[in-house]
Design brief:
The protein has about 350 residues and is an alpha/beta fold. It has helices spanning about 20-30, 45-50, 65-75, 105-120, 135-145, 200-210, 225-235, 250-255, 300-315, 330-340; strands spanning about 40, 55-60, 85, 95-100, 120-130, 145-150, 160-165, 175-180, 185-190, 215-220, 240-245, 265-270, 285-290, 295, 300, 315-325, 340-345, 350-355. It has a 7-stranded mixed beta sheet. A 7-stranded mixed beta sheet has the order 12-11-10-13-16-18-17, sandwiched between helices. The chain has a two-stranded antiparallel ribbon with strand order 8-9. β17 and β18 form a beta hairpin. It starts with 20 loop residues before the first helix and ends with a strand.
């Protein structure tokens, strides 16, 4: 059924589809369970939104890339967009929640709590996942939040698990840690990268950024919880700083972590897939990036390559682009294709720090 549609991933990844066997299992075997007002969660590329477009759908995803993929695939297949929510639709009356299993356990717990606020008394949750991704921790959370769990029969290494009769429960919460080199405490909302500990690559990067004082406009590209921007605010008391992330949870974490920064009016927060939301004429004399190499459960270098391309478009002629990455990731050749000058600055055993100019 899904193969009859034209569905694309964002970013495109050769060899990977915009859906998985759990989507196919739902549509083949459990479609009769998809009744009433339906909420689609974590539908990363809009595949289910396209195939279920004739039903009453609302849709939520933390990811700006998922928002772009939804619009693209609905337009390509000439189906109507679902009701798109930019915040979790807590006040809605939902009969059926169809959700892909998230990787983060804390984010999963948070989503289950949000679902309890909008699910009708007779409503159910259809949880889609590949068997290898359904951990003991995921199962424990299901039993903590719902009385009845029907695991269904696995097919093609996928499951559709039905959850009914919610148990009122609240345990998901933001995590906190301190970074001594910045003399700052950080908050991470559920689902934000580096939920429980400071990202070690960012810690290596901080020492390089604290010395970059001569800039007027900086861009933190893929800002996460804002740790790099905190370093930039301490390096310069006057520069304007734009923070961009494709995760709304990450961006909200960054807002919390920078709310006490001096002259917060020089900060701008944008939910976007890279610089898609910026005007082509917006340029920065300093761009910093700690790119991800995961998208959900998949490994990918495509996101980093897109961010490198974005940085090239928005860097001033004398500007500096700084990148930190795990040493095993082959980013040097891609950076060299885009930038006239690329220098490896780090001698750290686990992380490379690159300095680039046009």
């Amino acid at each position: 059924m899904l193969s009859s549609y034209r569905l694309e991933r964002i970013p495109q990844e050769p060899g990977l589809q915009a859906w998985n066997a759990a989507d196919e299992l739902l549509l083949k075997r459990d479609i009769e369970l998809c009744t009433g007002q339906i909420l689609l969660l974590n539908d990363s590329f809009g595949a289910l939104a396209v195939t279920l477009a004739d039903k009453e759908l609302c849709w939520w995803n933390d990811s700006a890339m998922a928002h772009d993929a939804l619009k693209l695939n609905c337009a390509t297949n000439q189906v109507r967009l679902p009701i798109v929510n930019h915040q979790f639709p807590e006040q809605a009356e939902i009969d059926t929640v169809i959700m892909h299993l998230p990787k983060s356990l804390n984010f999963f717990a948070w989503q289950l709590e949000q679902i309890q606020q909008c699910l009708t008394n007779t409503g159910s949750v259809l949880l889609l996942g590949m068997v290898k991704h359904i951990s003991k921790g995921h199962i424990e959370l299901m039993t903590r939040y719902f009385s009845n769990i029907n695991p269904g029969r696995a097919e093609k290494k996928a499951r559709v698990i039905q959850l009914t009769d919610p148990i009122p429960h609240s345990e998901s919460k933001a995590s906190h840690y301190a970074i001594e080199s910045l003399n700052t405490d950080f908050t991470q909302l559920p689902g934000c990268f580096a939920e429980n500990n400071a990202d070690p690559g960012a810690l290596v990067f901080i020492d390089y950024l604290k010395t970059r004082a001569n800039f007027n406009a900086a861009l933190d590209l893929g800002c996460g919880n804002g740790v790099l921007s905190v370093a930039l605010t301490q390096a310069s008391q006057t520069a304007a700083i734009t923070l961009i992330d494709e995760s709304q949870q990450a961006l909200n974490s960054a807002k919390a972590n920078l709310c006490h920064a001096k002259t917060t009016n020089r900060l701008r927060f944008i939910h976007s897939d890279g610089t898609n939301a910026l005007g082509s004429d917006e340029l920065f004399d300093l761009i910093v990036c700690n790119p991800p190499f995961h998208q959900g459960f998949s490994l990918t270098e495509k996101i980093a390559h897109k961010l490198f391309s974005d940085a090239h478009k928005h860097l001033t002629s004398q500007g500096e682009f700084w990148v930190v990455a795990n040493r095993h990731l082959p980013y040097y050749s891609d950076l060299k294709k885009r930038f006239g000058r690329v220098a490896l600055k780090s001698k750290h055993p686990k992380f490379n720090v690159y300095f680039c100019q046009l």
